[in-house]
Hints:
Chain A is an all-alpha fold and 339 residues long. Helices cover 77% and strands 1% of the residues of chain A.
Amino acid sequence: MGTLWYGIVASMIGVYVVLDGFDLGAGVLHRFIAQTESERRQVLAAFGPYWDGNEVWLLAAGGTLFFAFPRAYAVGFSGFYLPLMLVLWLLVLRGVSIEFRSHHESALWTLFWDSTLSLSSGLLAVVFGAALGNIIRGVPIDASGYFSMGFFELHGPGVLDGYTVLVGAFTLVLLTTHGALFLSWKTEGPVQTRARKVARVAGGLALALLVVATVASHLVQPALFAVMGSRPLACVLAGVAALGIAAAVVGIVRGRDLLAFLGSSATIVGILAATAALRYPILLPSTIDPSQSIAVHNAAAGEAGLAAGLWWWPIGLVLACAYFTFLFHRFRGKARGGH
Amino acid sequence: MTDPLFWHRVQFGFTVTYHYLFPQLTMGLAPLIVYFQAMALRRNDDRYRRAARFWARIFAVNFAVGVVTGIPMEFQFGTNWARFSAFSGGVIGQTLAMEGMFAFFLESSVLGLFLYGEERLGPKLHLASAVLLALGAWLSGYFIIATNAFMQHPVGHVVGPDGTLQLGSFWAFVLNPWAFWQYAHNMSAAMITGSFVVAAVGALYALQGLHPEQAALYLRTGVVVGLAFSVLQLFPTGDRHGKMVAQLQPTALAAMEGAFHGGPHVGLAIIGQPDVEHDRLENAIEVPGILSFLAYGTFGQDIRGLEEFPRDQWPDNIEVLYYAYHVMAGLGTLFIALMAWATFKLWRGTLLASRATLWMLLLAVPFPYIATTAGWTTAELGRQPWLVYGILRTVAGTSPRVSAGDTVFTLLGFCGLYLVLGLLFLFLVARELSRGPGAPVAEQEPRAALGEAR
């Protein structure tokens, strides 16, 4: 039962990164890729209807983690106290920058919020990447069952150290590519032309950083790839990521925007899911004592609770999918400037 | 003051109090917007249509702040209250996860359709989007109340082999009897906030002589709905909620009332200052026997005073608890009087001409917020010293590795961020108020064109 919920939580995080990833990436680009007010409105209209729902996947994934693995939620969230507070402030700033921007017509007002949107989106991408780096590398959970660690440590391990910042930079470039591909698909005119150009450059850089980050992950956490041979699911998921990369490359080269966007989505899901499959059953490894690692067997809620979740969670999921299908259908087609 | 517990409590108290200023209006306004839209559709009446559009604009700004200040709440269970989360997450995680799956997805998907989809959807589907949005907001409220009800009156749980709380009965937990009256009382309070705000904007326009048709509509709706829910707030929801507290949290009731000494025929203190050091209420003005009657329905009923309980089970901030309760109850009484008076004027057809009443309705707008805040303060301080009543003490619920310095730092950050957010909110709402609901459609063309360009 714990295994099932491990898969569910990992999938929800994957869906979150794919969905919010495109609006984070588009947010990063927003300030730069759109040069006139009408172009900015076009970018906002492209992801405006979705971003709030996308972000709910983060809350729903967090809630599901809380419910299925209370100890993982408690130890992880309190251990990453300051970085999570930073995430909260960035989420607040980003949310109001999207929602408040169009409530008042003034050049200074919109410039301020456009800049806030790009800055907060970029920082969020870096911090989310660094979080992934921390989860792969492990944290100093000691006999108390909790941990705390420095925020900046150049030579690691720290919340932000050489390795995690590398993963953060990779995430920023990957999500920027993802956002650019989304904009290539959902816009037209000069914004689309620029988005395609960005996707080409950022996509190449993302591939290079993927190689570097993979090697670095192997160096800081040798156990990660050691189990590769005995985990066929992880191999399949890594294959999905590879196919996604191929699809994205073909899509970018041939100018087939939707294919490229689906390709980058598959890449993100593949990388995250393969990592989850390789790390199973560990949710948060301890760098001090492996027996203190937070894992499925020592963090899962009771069977009755997990069983109760099995009937309401699928209903919630079906409803959520129905809303998203309806939403994407209603706002299908290219986004235009103006409203 | 160097105690991390103190700062964790201040931070959570501050962020949750601030956050809840917005959802109470969201939940209170949504049904009123549904009403305006439904009337517009049924009577094909342009007045209602413009009212619905106007309030949807205020709703949008309010909803946005509610959403962004709500995100920190879910995180803080883990960041600041890790031992509480690890201990009880197996139970309360259920409702918090369900809120995400059932309420947040619904609200976030429907919001865009509701705000921008009037033309794309047509009037009937647009009304449906408003109904779904209101449903999402009210569902969200229920999941949070059910979570809080477990902390007030834990039911449906068992203690697992590792000593943490686990779900025993899903239905017993989700349908906690405490949650029922707490939810009713809380949603009625939200309706009071919503209707007072609508009435106050009506009064504002009426006093300025602006938008007379709309002002009359807002006043009529706000005053009638406000009276209905002010009465419901006292009876049955407040009454039943109070009896529940008397039965299940006797220390909280005694502290709320400043009843240090028990016995039969205990009076209700209207005024007085609790002196916890000397176990007495100073300068008390009491109505004899009333507390016994309110808590148990008979005047002779024994009330257990605080002195009958060990001191380590007393709520740890009796002064604030006592005042919070009295502010809530006092304001609740005034609400009934104000709205009954305004309804009387409305019935006589003199409300729009009675400037004094309009001024009172306008100036009353902060008070539902204060009453709601005081009500939640009563509930949360009354629960002390417990985090999960009778099971886990608050002192045992914090994050062990987060220092007071960390928490003060983030508290200051929240204060600064929320100050800016509050100023922006007031600026945008003031802007919407000065733009107003607009003229009837025929005169509105140039303005509509401007509005469309957004």
